[in-house]
Write a structure and sequence with these properties.
Helix 6 packs antiparallel against helix 7. The protein has a domain of about 90 residues. It contains 7 helices and no strands. It is an all-alpha fold and about 140 residues long.
Length: about 140
């Protein structure tokens, strides 16, 4: 076996050394540090639970429509919740589209309880007419 002059043969007593190098490109130092500070900043507050449940209802609906799951009962079994709870979540899809959008875009909750809960929206979802839902939503969201 021949060795190249650039790569001498490895000695059995040799210890491999690994080093980390950081290369700085001029003019990029500020941009890198600014992007790092943006990544570290956490949003002030949390997404309201009802907004997360609305997104979950939309996801459940897409799973059923695509055939990934066949029924709401199967969703309940996979999610380790009762069929009644899946029904409560799926009933959020009965809301008027503009109300669904408003629920998804509710402001972040900084502290304390959510101003609107799923239980509050059950009465709104039980209304059949979207105009009646909108009136109930306006009174609820004030």
């Amino acid at each position: 076996m021949t060795t190249s002059p650039r790569h001498p043969p490895l000695n059995a007593d040799a210890i491999p050394v690994t080093r980390t190098a950081r290369f700085i490109v001029r003019g990029r130092e500020r941009a890198a540090s600014a992007s790092e500070s943006v990544e570290q900043a956490a949003p002030p507050g949390r997404v309201p639970r009802i907004a997360r449940l609305m997104a979950l209802a939309i996801r459940f609906d897409s799973l059923i429509r695509t055939g990934a799951v066949s029924t709401q009962a199967e969703l309940a079994e996979v999610g380790h919740v009762t069929r009644a709870r899946v029904t409560q979540i799926m009933n959020l899809l009965h809301l008027a589209p503009d109300i669904q959008e408003a629920v998804l875009h509710l402001p972040l909750v900084a502290n304390g309880r959510d101003p609107i809960t799923e239980h509050d929206l059950r009465a709104v979802t039980s209304l059949v007419e979207w105009s009646a839902q909108r009136r109930a939503w306006l009174s609820l969201s004030r």
